[in-house]
Amino acid sequence: MKDCLLFVFKKSICIMFNRFSFKILPSVCRFSQKVAQPLRSKKPKSSTSTIQSYVDIKHLRVVGGKGGDGCISFLSVFGNEFAGPDGGDGGNGGHVIFQPSEDVKDLSRVPTVARANNGINGTTKDCHGKNADHCSIKVPVGTIIKDSTGKVVGDLSHPSLLFVAARGGAGGKGNHYFISDTQQTPQICEYGAQGEDLEYTIEVKSMAHIGLIGFPNAGKSTLLRAISRARPKVAPYPFTTLKPHVGIVQYDDYEQIAVADLPGLIPDSHKNKGLGIEFLKHAERCTALLYIIDMSEPEPWRHLEVLQFELSQFNDDLNSRPQLVAANKIDVPIAEENVEELKKRTDIPVIPISAKLGTNVSSLLREIKIIYDKEKENKQ
User: Fold this and answer.
1) How much of the chain is helix, strand and coil, in % rounded to 5?
2) Among 15, 25, 115, 329, which residue carries the largest CB count within 10 Å?
3) Coil, strand, or helix at residue 249?
4) Which contiguous run of DSSP H or E holds residue 63?
């Protein structure tokens, strides 16, 4: 009796498996590639109105510290009224140093004018002045330093590197230094030297893993708000975003992918129309490009062609980077027809999404993780 019941139970399981196997197989084939899943942030967004933009380029002036002045003094002690010169030397001025740090992510805390401290003047009784402390400015790892002519003079690609931007002046000598066989009572000293006064332009080599490229009001800021805790400004007028905003997408394999919301591009941006050159420089600092195309516009594939043309005119290497197209605003009725036409006109993978409603955003994040993993393997 037990054997009969066991046979009937096994047979029923086989029938159920055969009945529902055709429904399970498509999902198994679709997700056969193991890709980490994005995590939903449990921490609520801040209620303050502070907008934190990403600063990837900075122009600054650096001034080294002035050296301390030497001292003119003659020692007079009990029993020896003319004990000789005893003027001390001045201390050296401080340097201005760029120090890469993994704790710093952008250049927002780099001052416009950086001055090192001056050296202390020398005093009597052969007391030398104290050397000034150096002014250390922390910058992100991978910062490129250019001088006033645009020439690259430094590349801080490792945390152990340092770049002396402006040297401090040497301290002046006191009159004790100038004693000689023929001059036993010199009444001269040196002033401290002035520090270097230079100008630099520092740029971050890599800003984010993924850069959002698109026309104004295409939905880039809305998408960044949907996938991260970043809070870029969203408004119904063009050029809402004038500075990049970076958000972090976390996955269940403990990887974090940085996504940058870049200012919108327009035709002739490579000719610096609408601050186009400045906006295009942001795209150079992204590993992969994600085109955000507004599907509610007539002929949205024209927008993709214009964006690719502008990038190629500015830098040919940009179009060779990993690319993905996000067909945004599919909640609009006309969008479905435009998405199908867009897929026919481009070889780049197209992911239809609605950043406002969150439709198909998880599939987009999955494709982003695949691109990130491939780039990580290529670097290794």
Assistant:
1) 25, 25, 50
2) 329
3) strand
4) strand 57-63
User: 1-24: b or e for each residue (b if 16 or more CB lie within 10 Å)?
Assistant: eeeeeeeeeeeeeeeeeeeeeeee
Evaluate if residue 88 carries a pLDDT over 70: yes
**Tokens encoding 308:** 């690719």
In whole angstroms, what is the distance from residue 67 CA to residue 120 CA? Answer: 7
Name the one residue in this structure whose structure tokens are 């809402």. Answer: 240
Largest CA distance in the chain: 127
The candidate with the shortest Cα–Cα distance to 275, out of 287, 262, 286, is 262
Tokens 């004018």, located at residue: 113
Q: What is the pLDDT of residues 234-290, one digit of tens each?
A: 888 888 888 888 989 999 888 889 999 998 888 888 888 877 888 888 888 899 999
Burial (CB count within 10 angstroms: exposed 0-12, middle 13-18, buried 19+), residue 47:
exposed
Is pTM beyond 0.85 here? no
Q: Report the C-alpha gap between 228 and 209 in whole angstroms.
A: 14
Specify which residues 7 forms β-bridges with.
Answer: none
What pLDDT does 229 receive? 86
Q: What is the mean pLDDT of residues 209-236?
A: 89
The closest alpha carbon to 350, from 304, 318, 316, 310, belongs to 304
Give the dihedral sign, CA 18/21/22/23. positive
The sign of the torsion formed by the CA atoms of 274, 276, 277, 281 equals positive
